[in-house]
Amino acid sequence: MSTGELLNIEPLELKFPFELKKQISCSLQLSNKTENHVAFKVKTTNPKKYCVRPNTGIVLPRSTCDIIVTMQAQKEAPPDMQCKDKFLLQSAEAGPGTTPKDITPEMFNKEAGRVVEECKLRVIYVSPPLPPSPVAEGSEEGSSPRVSLTENGNLNGSEVTRAFVEAHDKSSEVRALISKLTEEKATAIQGSNKLRQELELLTRNSNKSRGGVSFVFVIIVGLLGIVLGYDSPVIVQGAPQVFKMENPFQSVGPGNAVEVNEVKNGTLVRLVLPGVGENGIKVWTENNTVFFAGEGEIEWEGDDCRRKYGGSLEFHPEEYRADGVKAEMKNGILRLLVPNAEAKEKKEGK
């Protein structure tokens, strides 16, 4: 771990399990140690060989940011598995409310009198794990594997070869699965970073404009994937707002995953939760925050994987009474009606 005045960087060595003709990824985490926004930029001596996402960005105060470095598929291995490629990570303090769109090359220019921290990262190739040694069928734990003999006392080569091939195939499947999960995790991390930056931009714009909508709240809906289980947060700010989820088979009617609308005496939140029955959802409140969790029904016989949902809606206590929420689950749609606070009713009554 590198410990500077602005960021902690881990790890300092980018390790790639090298395999020919395969795209390989590894991750890097930045931790902001300060109470200020920190801008960063990643450079490499071989930009055509690597893809860095994000290569520039903002790390919010006391928060972290994950970077995914992907090495393009290589046609040949380097001599002695040694790599001379290097990365340089630059960081500099940024002003309050700075977003990735505000980053310029001048922010990392030392000649302008700015304090710019730099950290060099090495690239290391790691040999992939070797396939396990084939064990002949019928061998016992702790004993040597038995080898088949032909009638003339020679080794039965076909059985040994078949066992080795089967073991190698299984090892290849495991490596392919790990590589696929790594890529999907990288995509999920990129999405999370993008949403965090968009939320910061929304907050910044909201502070500039107080007119129009009389309240600001944030809804974070954690939609749990039914296959891999990655969190995929949906962030909505202000009202009315919608989150698009197009259904190619739907011709008319509301088609959004999340809708927030201000109605008489309160706010109506509409959440689309396919597969959840009328009794399949639980709603409760704490500290003027509405929480919900539930799971869908089994859709067909033999199916043991249900859709799962969960999230929270935080409301400003001077604007809304979350403890008075009215919830209705019907036809796969959760409707939450949150009443206005007494202070807001009096204000609007004037």
UniProtKB/TrEMBL annotation:
Residues 141-153 have a biased composition (Polar residues). The keyword DNA damage does not apply. Residues 249-350 form the SHSP domain. PROSITE patterns: MSP, SHSP. It is a single-pass type IV membrane protein. The chain crosses the membrane at residues 212-230. GO terms for biological process: endoplasmic reticulum membrane organization; endoplasmic reticulum-plasma membrane tethering. It is found in: Membrane. InterPro entries: A-crystallin/Hsp20_dom, HSP20-like_chaperone, Ig-like_fold, MSP_dom, PapD-like_sf, VAP. Keywords: Membrane, Transmembrane, Transmembrane helix. Residues 131-153 are annotated as: Disordered. One of its GO terms (cellular component) is endoplasmic reticulum membrane. It holds the Pfam family Motile_Sperm. SUPFAM superfamilies: HSP20-like chaperones, PapD-like. Belongs to the small heat shock protein (HSP20) family. This is MSP domain-containing protein.
